[in-house]
Amino acid sequence: MNTTSTFGQLRKNEREIRKNLIIDAAIGLFATKSFENTSIRDIAAAAGISPASIYRYFADRDELFVEALLREGKDIIAGMEKLLAENGGSSIEKISAGFVDYLLEHDAFFQMMTHFMLGGNISEKALTRFNQAERYLLNAFEGIFKDMGVKENARLIAHAFFASLNGIVITFRKYPGRSEEEVKRHMRRLAGLIAGIFKKGAV
Predict the structure, then answer these.
(1) I need a surface site. Which of 9, 107, 136, 203 has the fewest CB within 10 A?
(2) Are 187 and 88 in a shared domain?
């Protein structure tokens, strides 16, 4: 057995464990504290390490948040793949409702996604990683419209569809005077309406 190689692998595994611990702490904080007001110091305290230790694994706060976003995004990617496999382009309404439901049920993911979409001023490395996650969703939506027979501007239509669904959540997720269930029902109806408009326009 190569002892040097074994110790190297152990160090690599330990690094991944610590990195995941930091990401877990960041995601956990978003359940009780707004994304914008969560600092590196807060995350370090939750993870039980010093703020300086975080910078051994992440260049800055945005890089950490992108990694947390990608971790959370695995669920929506898996959910999208399942919906696409079960329904395909013929059930764009279900796909729309499923996407909106996910954003409602995963507030940390939604906060991080809108932070990067609205902020725009992030490092090149963090932006590259963020674009990977966003590109997957856009590719999935583009594939839906192509399956529906769209031959021109499928990518542009996918962008408009993605933006419309995000707009529903941004506008109504904290709608005053409505219960959580009422808000969810309303947003699902809007998602269905958006899907119907795009489906009709794509034919």
Answers:
(1) 203
(2) yes
